[in-house]
From TrEMBL:
MF term (GO), any: methyltransferase activity
Catalyzed reactions per annotation: (6R)-5,10-methylene-5,6,7,8-tetrahydrofolate + 3-methyl-2-oxobutanoate + H2O = 2-dehydropantoate + (6S)-5,6,7,8-tetrahydrofolate
Keyword Nucleotidyltransferase in record: no
UniProt source species: Paragemmobacter straminiformis
Protein name: 3-methyl-2-oxobutanoate hydroxymethyltransferase
Amino acid sequence: MSASAPLRSVLPPEIMARKGGAPLVVLTAYTTPVARLVDPHCDIALVGDSVGMVLHGMPSTIGVTLEMMILHGRAVMRGLSKAMAVIDMPFGSYEESPEQAFRNAARLMAETGAPSVKLEGGVHMAETIAFLTARGVPVMAHVGLTPQSINTLGGYKVVGREGEAARVMADARACEAAGAFSIVLEKVPVGLAGEITRALKIPTIGIGAGADCDGQVLVVDDMLGLFTDFRPKFVKRYAELGMLADEAIASYAAEVRARTFPAPEHGFADKVKS
Ligand code: KIV
């Protein structure tokens, strides 16, 4: 997959135009098979840096590299025919300077074929967002809880209560003014998320931010219930695939031990019948 991939039907201007319209449906995807499942139902497939925790067992998103995002971005692009891909810029790939951000965003776009990137940060990233958008890089911003900053935030907390509300609003406004085409609000209190959504002209996409946002995003593995031990309050489980997988693997193990699998129908005859 490269930048020579055909233009996809959904592109950032269309996402912007959805402000106030039908809610935007967003899920993460990190692999081709999951991208194929997400594609018919979603407007956006987010190749989130949550891939580090979800698929690679990392303790946070801090260790995710540009190479990982390119690898998973390519895999997802192979599975999409309709939904738009957004690829996360990983920690350390954009914060240093607008030039560093452009260099790495250009690699993400050129080496995967994805038409947009996402980065975390508000007021302090506005200059970078403006630099990127002026140079052909559509940017989805991400404010509120920004997981790449957990070490300064002190954990995966709700961000924007009481004294913090004005700062989160200022962050969101700065991203919009800098040219972001949409913005993720993560773990922002419901009332504030509604206020931000009404104040901005670009779509807000909530995760743990209530129903007033212009769209919703979840980590696909969370909503499918692939983790049996991870239940954040803001995730609704639409399936319990982790439990189903556990039962299936236990049955397989029992049958192998009892020599009831493979059965005759799973084998190949020594001679082909003529
Ligand atoms: O990395 C990710 O999956 C994200 C979403 C949770 C918004 O940034």
